Each structure stands twice: as C-alpha cells, then as structure tokens.
Amino acid sequence: FFPQTITGNFANVIHGLNANHLTDQVIQRSKRMILDTLGVGLLGTSTEVCHKVAQYSKIYSSHISSTIWGHLDFRLPPLYAAFVNGVAVHSMDFDDTWHPATHPSGAVLPAVTALSEAFRQKKKISGLDLLLAFNVGIEVQGRLLRFSSEARNIPKRY
C-alpha cells in the first residue's frame, strides 16, 4: 500500500476501513450525530450568512448537482452544496463538539451528503456506505487534530 511514514500509516488505516468496522454502538451514535447535524443545518438555512453564501454560490453550475438542505428546488455543484450546507450547520454553532474544540459532523456530513447525491448517477450509495463515509470523515478529522502539535493550544493554532 503506502510507504511506512506517518502519512503512509494514516493512509493505510483509512484505506483499510470498511463497513465491518461499524459496531452497533458506532452506527447508533452516528445516526444521532447525523440527525442532530441535519436539524441544526436546516435551522441554519434561515441565517443571513447562509443566504449570502447561497446567493454567491448560484454563479456556479455543473451537470452534476447536489441539494441545498431545506430547498429541494435549489441545487448546486457538490463542492458548493457542501459549502452552503456546512455554513448552515456552523452558523447556528449548536452542532456537536469535541475537545479540543472542533465540530466534526458540521464539516463531514455536508461533504458526504453532497457527494452521495453526485455519485448517485453512477452508483447507488447505500445507507451503510453513507455511514461508513461519515465515520471515515470523522476519523480523519480526529486523527488530524491529534497529529497537530498545537492541538492543546487552540488560540495559538489560529
């Protein structure tokens, strides 16, 4: 697979994850995180900042598109759909949190849902595929945070 470096080891772990690694507890917690993030994101679509990024993003188009949450008739290229939906989640600042401070689901779920819609044209994505992708995204985010030498000093990081 990948060379035996920190990055290579990280890539091997992520590449090796599959649906068999999802325990019942992980699946239940993931569903709760997803439901919470969707709720916060739907509420966030009414914020001024979300309206601004949605208006800005309308200038982009593609033959592949994904839904803006809460607006079934408003579709954008997957990158911009993930951006708008992510802003909606973060604009409320009620999404889940880890310590040190990070909001894992608000960054991961908008990307996963936008991509799952985009891939639907080529390959049907199952609910288990979506849960696996969500958990891989959470794992990547958590590991990157742990790799940061400054993760314990959040003000210094920014």
Topology:
Blueprint: H1 6-15, H2 24-44, H3 48-57, E1 66-68, E2 71-76, H4 78-92, H5 104-119, H6 127-147, H7 154-157
Antiparallel strand pairs: 1-2
Helix pairs in contact: 2-4, 3-4, 4-5, 5-6
Characterization of this structure:
InterPro entries: MmgE/PrpD_sf (IPR036148), MmgE/PrpD_sf_1 (IPR042183), MmgE_PrpD (IPR005656), MmgE_PrpD_N (IPR045336). It comes from Steatornis caripensis (Oilbird). Residues 9-152 form the MmgE/PrpD N-terminal domain. GO terms for molecular function: aconitate decarboxylase activity. With 158 residues, the chain is mainly alpha-helical. The chain has a single domain (23-149), classed as 2-methylcitrate dehydratase PrpD, CATH 1.10.4100. It contains seven helices and two strands. It has a two-stranded antiparallel sheet. The radius of gyration is 17 Å and the shape is globular.
* Helical percentage: 55-70%
CATH class: Mainly Alpha
The SSE order reads HHHEEHHHH
The oligomeric state is single chain
What's the CATH architecture?
Answer: Orthogonal Bundle
The CATH topology turns out to be 2-methylcitrate dehydratase PrpD
**CATH superfamily caption:** 2-methylcitrate dehydratase PrpD
> Roughly what fraction of the amino acids lie in strands?
5-15%
Q: How would you sum up the major sheet?
A: 2 strands, antiparallel
Question: For the largest beta sheet, what order do the strands appear in spatially?
Answer: 1-2
What integer value in Å does the Rg equal?
Answer: 17 Å
- Got a strand count? 2
Runs in which pLDDT lies below 50 for 5 or more consecutive residues are: none
Q: Mean pLDDT across all residues, rounded?
A: 85
What is the overall number of helices?
7
- Could you say which overall geometry the principal axes of the C-alpha atoms support? globular
Please give the domain count: 1
Distance between the termini: 34 Å
User: Given the helix and strand composition, which structural class is it?
Assistant: mainly alpha
Pfam families: MmgE_PrpD_N (PF03972)
GO molecular function, one term: aconitate decarboxylase activity
Protein name: IRG1 decarboxylase
GO biological process, one term: defense response
